[in-house]
Structure formats: C-alpha cells, structure tokens
Amino acid sequence: MKLCSVVVPCYNEEETIQIFYDEMQKYITKLSDLAFEFIFVDDGSKDHSLMEMKRLAGEDPSVKFISFSRNFGKEAGLFAGLEAASGDYIVTMDVDLQDPPYLLEDMYKAVTEEGYDCAATMRTDRKGEAPIRSWFARRFYRLINKISNADIVDGARDYRFMTRQMVDSILAMREYNRFTKGIFGWIGFKTKWIPFENVERSAGTTKWSFWKLFLYALEGIIAFSTTPLWIASITGLLSCMLSVIAMIFIIIRRLLYGDPVDGWASIITIMLFIGGLQMLFLGIQGLYISKMYLETKERPIYITKETNVKKQETGKHEEE
Ligand code: UDP
Ligand code: MG
Predict the structure, then answer these.
(1) Which of 7, 65, 68, 94 to mutate to test the pocket of ligand 1 (most atoms within 8 A of CB)?
(2) What is the pLDDT of residues 262-286, one digit of tens each?
(3) N or C: which end of the chain has fewer CB within 10 A?
C-alpha cells in the first residue's frame, strides 16, 4: 500500500485544525488504496494550535506535528512539512478548508492514472475578496509571468498532489528566500490544473494583510526575475544617449544664438529627475544584494522546537 503524506502549515489555527481533520477523514476513506499520514506544522502559533495537534497525535498515530520556535512564514512551514513527509505521494493544503478535500480523488487519479507528476488546483474566481486586492493580484501574475521563467498561474493555490520525485526536487532547492509558487513553476514537471470555485474559510481569519501580500509579491519578483536590474541598466543607457543628443543641441544653439542665461527651472527638474532615478535603481540593486546577503548566511529555513517526527525519518523515503 502506498503512503500519502498530507502537509498542513498552521498559524493560529486552533479553531480549524479539528474541523479540517474531521472533514479529511470523510474523503481519505474513499481513497482506499492509499494510507495517509498528516503532518501539521505549527508555525509559531500564539494560540492553542500546538495543543490541538498534540491531542490529535495522541488519538491517531498517523498524525505528526512539527512546532517552530517562532513564526517563520507559510513557505518555511511547507518546506519543513515536505522534509518530514515520508509518503510516496505528498499533498500540501491549507488547514482552513479553502482547499476542498473532495478534489483529492481527481488529483489522485491525475497522478496515478493520467500520467501527471502533479495535480495542482486553481481558483476560478476571487469571491469574498476585496476588489482592490484582486486587482493587484491579477496585475502581479501578469507581470511576474512576463519577467520571469517561473510559470505562475493566476489563482493557483498551494494545494497540490505530488509525486515523491517532484517533492525531492523541491527539497533540493535550498534557497532561504522561498517563494513556493515560483519554485513549483520553476522545477517544471507535468502538472494538471484542476479549477474550483473559491471557498470561504471554515473558521478563524486570514493571516494575510494587504501589506504582507504586497511585500510577498515583491519578494516573488526579486526571487525569480532579474528584469528590474535590466530596466535600470537600459534606462541608464537611454538617458546617456538622450543627454548626448541634448549636448549637441545645446552646443549648436550656443554657437548660433549666443548663451542667454535662463532655464534654471528646467535644469533643476532634470537634476531632480535623474537624482530620483539613481536612488530608485540603487534601491533595486540593494534589494538584490540584500537577498544575496541573506542567502550567503545560510541560515536554517526554520527552527524546530518540538516534534514527534523521528529524526531518521525526516526527508527520507522508505522504499517498499
Ligand atoms: N500560514 C502559516 N504561516 C503564516 C501564515 C499562514 O503557516 O505565517 C498558514 C495558515 O495557517 C493557513 C495557510 O497558511 O493554513 C493559508 O493562510 P490563510 O488562510 O490565512 O491565507 P488566505 O487563504 O487568506 O490566503
Ligand atoms: Mg485561507
């Protein structure tokens, strides 16, 4: 019998963990040729999420938990869960049931019968989301697909059913700045996209503020594209060329008409503009350098405080 690991990152989710577990039981019994294990990752929750996980683990030996020393973010949670997973297949999903478990059957079929390496899900709409947020999200997906080679689908969720081989390639990417949506797209493999209609949270509240999402989008661009650097270089080159043309124009005008002393306003505007551009592009360079700085420190992606996953199991796959 093949094992399927379900990786669930949780941050302040005491209300939803039990609901999630109960709901999942209904669907995993339908996939009778798979055994399941749950890996709950407590991402430094400040509520009783860990207690909930431990209680479940006490009742059901297939429930594993990993508890971080602080909040490391969902990306780190996913990574820790994938590392600890020992299944032949691995599912990543949110604990708030916004990733509907009824899709598991189709996802399983896509991988085992239709020859895909991965079944991924995408929302077809953004119901229940602020319009401004949706607007920015759409712009972001357009932009990042244009300027990077990480193929990122608009509305893609981190709800995936993957083969062991695919998960091993994700784990091989040890970068500190983990933009999971980009990593999924970058490693390739054959992916089947399964659309579904947006579902509202089962309980609790979203952990993403608009500002957090905005920064996350910037992180994604910096992590998967060097286009901003190119824009800086090309703008610099263009403004150089423009200034040569302007210089020739000014010299000829001086020779023909003399040198009337005016144009203070235009000079100041141009100076401010160029100064602004320089600061902006220095800033962009700085962002890339700061990412390099963090990568070279080779800090751990997460720190475990408590877990019931045995050491030798982590990241290793037991062949049958
Ligand atoms: N999450 C996490 N660490 C964080 C933020 C979120 O592990 O720092 C988890 C959260 O518990 C949930 C999933 O990531 O299982 C998605 O979060 P949420 O539902 O708040 O995001 P949304 O669905 O609103 O995009
Ligand atoms: Mg959610």
Answers:
(1) 94
(2) 777 778 888 888 888 888 888 888 8
(3) C
